[in-house]
C-alpha cells in the first residue's frame, strides 16, 4: 500500500468511507485489503450474485473468509447505510456500464451513464469518498494507491477520480464491455438517453447513416438527432466495406441508422458488434 495515510484521514472523520474500485489488477485481492486498514475498521463491498447458486455460495465464502462483509445489489440500502454510519469502509466497483437508471457524466471525455450509488450513499451518510488503483509490480505482486475525490461527491467527480486511478496502469484495467453504449429504443428520442439537449462530451458518439444505392435521400427523424452524435454518410457501399469504415477513425461506430432492411449489412454489423436501428421506427 503506497499511501495508507489517505484512508486513515478519511476514516478519522468517523462517517464511513466509500471506496471507488475498478476491475483492475487482481480485484479478488480487494476483499483482503482491510488488512491495511486502520485497526478495527470494518470492511464491506458490493457484489453481484452469480446465477449458479452453487458457485455463488463458494465464491461468497472465499470472499468473506477474511472478514469482509459482502452486500448484494438486492440488499436494502439501509443495511449499507448502517454499515457506513458505523464508520465502515464499503468498496463499490464503479467502472461498470449501467442502463437508463444511471447519471449522464463524462468518462474519458465521452458521455456515458454512471451508477449514482456512490454519490447517493455519500449524500445520505455524509461519508468520505476515495478511489483506489492497483498496479502490477511483479508476477503475483501488486501495489495499491488511494486517490482523492474532489468535492462535492457527485457522480461526475467520482468518475473523474476513477479515471485517474485507471490511468495509473492502463495495462492492468480489464473489463470487456461496451462502456459508452447508447441505449436505443424505437420511438424514443435520443435525448431521453442523454437527458439534456445541451449535453456534450469532448468526443461525440459516432453514428453512421447507411443508404443503399438509389435509395431516396430521406432525412433523419428529429428524434434521431442530438448534438453529441456526429453522423457519417455511407451511400451505395457494400456491406463488407463496413469493416474499413469502422476503424477509419480512432473511436468505433456506436450504431448504424438505416432506412430499409439490409440483411447483408446486418450480418457484417453483428460480427463487428455494431447495433443497427431503422430510422422509420423513431418518432418524426
Overview of the structural elements:
- The chain has 284 residues and is α/β, with parallel strands linked by helices.
- It folds into two domains: 4-172, no CATH class; 191-281, Rossmann fold (3-Layer(aba) Sandwich), CATH 3.40.50.
- It is 24% helix and 24% strand.
- It contains eight helices and twelve strands.
- The chain has helices at residues 4-12, 53-63, 77-85, 117-125, 155-166, 191-194, 242-245, 263-272, and strands at residues 17-21, 43-47, 69-72, 89-93, 103-107, 110-114, 128-138, 141-148, 205-211, 229-235, 255-258, 276-278.
- The strands form three sheets. Strands 3-2-4-1-7-8 form a six-stranded mixed sheet, sandwiched between helices. The chain has a four-stranded parallel sheet with strand order 10-9-11-12, with no helix packed on it. A two-stranded antiparallel ribbon has the order 5-6.
- Strand 11, helix 8 (263-272) and strand 12 form a beta-alpha-beta unit.
- The longest helix has 12 residues, at 155-166.
- It is elongated and about 75 Å long.
- The termini are far apart.
- The model has no long low-confidence stretch (mean pLDDT 91).
What order do the helices and strands come in, and which of them pair?
Blueprint lengths: L3 H9 L4 E5 L21 E5 L5 H11 L5 E4 L4 H9 L3 E5 L9 E5 L2 E5 L2 H9 L2 E11 L2 E8 L6 H12 L24 H4 L10 E7 L17 E7 L6 H4 L9 E4 L4 H10 L3 E3 L6
Parallel strand pairs: 1-4, 1-7, 2-3, 2-4, 9-10, 9-11, 11-12
Antiparallel strand pairs: 5-6, 7-8
Amino acid at each position: 500500500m503506497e499511501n495508507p495515510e489517505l484512508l486513515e484521514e478519511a476514516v478519522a472523520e468517523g462517517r464511513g468511507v466509500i471506496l471507488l474500485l475498478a476491475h483492475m489488477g487482481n480485484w479478488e485481492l480487494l476483499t483482503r485489503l482491510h488488512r491495511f486498514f486502520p485497526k478495527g475498521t470494518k470492511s464491506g463491498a458490493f457484489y453481484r450474485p452469480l446465477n449458479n447458486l452453487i458457485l455463488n455460495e463458494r465464491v461468497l465464502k472465499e470472499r468473506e473468509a477474511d472478514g469482509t462483509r459482502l452486500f448484494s445489489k438486492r440488499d436494502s440500502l439501509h443495511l449499507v447505510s448502517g454499515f457506513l454510519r458505523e464508520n465502515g469502509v464499503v468498496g463499490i466497483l464503479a467502472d461498470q456500464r449501467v442502463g437508463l437508471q444511471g447519471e449522464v457524466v463524462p468518462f474519458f471525455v465521452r458521455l456515458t451513464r454512471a451508477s449514482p450509488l456512490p454519490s447517493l450513499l455519500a449524500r445520505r451518510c455524509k461519508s468520505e469518498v476515495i478511489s483506489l488503483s492497483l498496479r502490477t509490480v511483479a508476477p503475483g505482486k501488486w501495489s495499491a494507491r488511494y486517490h482523492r475525490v474532489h468535492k462535492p461527491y457527485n457522480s461526475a467527480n467520482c468518475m473523474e477520480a476513477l479515471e485517474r486511478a485507471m490511468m495509473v496502469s492502463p495495462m492492468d484495467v480489464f473489463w470487456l464491455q461496451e462502456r459508452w453504449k447508447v441505449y436505443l429504443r424505437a420511438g424514443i428520442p435520443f435525448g431521453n438517453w442523454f437527458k439534456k439537449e445541451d449535453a456534450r462530451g469532448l468526443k461525440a458518439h459516432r453514428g453512421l447513416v447507411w443508404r443503399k444505392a438509389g435509395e431516396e435521400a430521406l432525412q433523419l427523424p428529429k428524434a434521431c438527432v442530438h448534438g453529441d452524435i456526429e453522423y457519417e454518410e455511407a451511400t451505395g457501399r457494400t456491406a463488407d466495406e463496413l469493416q474499413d469504415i469502422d476503424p477509419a477513425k480512432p473511436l468505433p461506430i456506436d450504431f448504424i441508422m438505416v432506412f430499409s432492411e439490409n440483411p447483408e449489412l446486418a450480418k457484417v454489423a453483428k460480427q463487428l458488434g455494431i447495433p443497427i436501428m431503422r430510422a422509420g421506427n423513431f418518432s418524426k
